[in-house]
Amino acid sequence: MRRSWLYEFFRIILVFGLRLFHRKFRVVGYENLKGSDIPTIVVGNHQNALLDPILCCSVITQQLHWLTRSDVFKPGFVSWLLGKFNMLPVYREQDNVGDLRDRNDAIFRECYKRLNRGQWISLFPEGTHKGKKALNTPLKKGVGRLIIGTFEANPNLKQIRILPLGLEYSEFFEKDGDFMLRIGKPIVLSKEDYTTANKAIWANELVADISAQLQAVMTDIRNKDYYEEYLTIQELMHFVHPHNDWHENVLLFQDLVNADRFEQIQFLNELKSFNQLSKDLSFSNKTEFETQQWNFWNTLRVCITYPFALIGKMIFFPISNFTENFVQTKLKDMLFRNSIRISFKLFFSIPYILLLAIAFPFFGINYFLGVLILVGIGVFEVRSRMRLDRFKKIIQHKKESAQRRDDYSKWKLAQVQCISQLKEICNEQN
């Protein structure tokens, strides 16, 4: 089975970079990746632009072949490069191509061949990203067409499986968030099931099944009227279970959402009032929780590492400054910011470090040792900066709380009341 060396090279770099730029990186359901000998179609929820496929590729060692919107395939070098990354263009009506159907038919025939060779096809059946923790239904029916066509094009193929992925982010627009990938139980389809069914009905039932499986592994807030209140519940879950890891509270929250445990109008209305109070008084649940979790040792680490982090910031200032200017001024879609930020800092740092290390031999230091030193400084600077940014927010929060004691007390009382009700709901679930 042919593997793209360029894909593998960039994947190794991204695995390192994504874990570096996320405070917490968790994968749940690794055991569901077993069975790589069966042709597999990977489907996931699409929340965060380019970061979604990058994160999936970094976790799954099997090379993924992505169905991607065609407008990113610019003629020449870009198309060649995307092809080396195993990406396949899918044409939409807004692409304004006259032979749209013929082009898509050709792409799907290529997918049939790759699946028959045991390669993994990947797609986001929502068809778009939106920066919302909700499944964009109904799903596109292309996955049904893909499976039917694969069975028909490959008479000896006995099974195809669908692997659902749930992507979860603590932040869509801010830097240095947490990330979780939840791998669901695969849907295994046999040719016997397909051949005994009506094609249209079978495809519709399959898409509905995929939708249900995705909802089971992701945060799917279906109540649009109280969407912000559900996000507040997710933040308050950490106060209910303060000793849980971040991803453990996410899993608990997802299960409660899917069980409709929070569909209590009085509770949701109180949360709406609390959200308005938080907005009016400018207090944050997230910063409040981090303040409670912060301890003396965290402060000591900030004090000890700050001088070294400052050195790293000075060394890598050109790359950081260029990246932030580009992200802030050139990108209209804010969902692309984190993926571009990570990619630029990673890949621009490689030639920058290699060039900068040329100076080390003049000081009697081996060139390759110089490269390692610069890599270490870069890693140290990123992690130290993340800790320092948290420390600054916590100091500011404590200052505001002390200066506006009455406002803080009012806000804290409302928060405690919401947490108390949330505890009752969680205890009912147990």
Question: Would you give an account of this structure?
Answer:
The protein has 2 domains: 5-216, Glycerol-3-phosphate (1)-acyltransferase; 224-430, no CATH class. Strands 1, 2, 3, 4, 5, 6, 7 and 8 form an 8-stranded mixed sheet that branches. It is globular. A hairpin with an 8-residue loop joins strand 6 (159-169) and strand 7 (178-183). Helix 13 runs antiparallel to helix 14. It has 430 residues and is an alpha/beta fold. 59% of the residues lie in helices and 10% in strands. It has helices at residues 5-21, 51-59, 77-84, 100-116, 142-153, 191-195, 199-216, 227-240, 246-258, 265-281, 285-293, 296-315, 317-330, 337-356, 367-403, 405-429; strands at residues 24-28, 40-44, 64-69, 87-90, 120-123, 159-169, 178-183, 187-190. It contains 16 helices and 8 strands.
- Proportion in helices: 55-70%
Compute the number of structural domains: 2
Shape by Cα distribution? globular
What is the β-strand count? 8
For the termini, the CA-CA separation is 48 Å
- Sheet of most strands: 8 strands, mixed
At the fourth level of CATH, the homologous superfamily of the largest domain is: Glycerol-3-phosphate (1)-acyltransferase
Coarse structural class: alpha/beta
Instruction: Give the overall pLDDT as a whole number.
Output: 88
Q: What are the SSEs and their pairings?
A:
Blueprint: H1 5-21, E1 24-28, E2 40-44, H2 51-59, E3 64-69, H3 77-84, E4 87-90, H4 100-116, E5 120-123, H5 142-153, E6 159-169, E7 178-183, E8 187-190, H6 191-195, H7 199-216, H8 227-240, H9 246-258, H10 265-281, H11 285-293, H12 296-315, H13 317-330, H14 337-356, H15 367-403, H16 405-429
Parallel strand pairs: 1-7, 2-5, 2-6, 3-4, 3-5
Antiparallel strand pairs: 6-7, 6-8
Helix pairs in contact: 1-2, 1-14, 4-5, 5-7, 8-9, 8-10, 8-16, 10-16, 11-15, 12-15, 13-14, 15-16
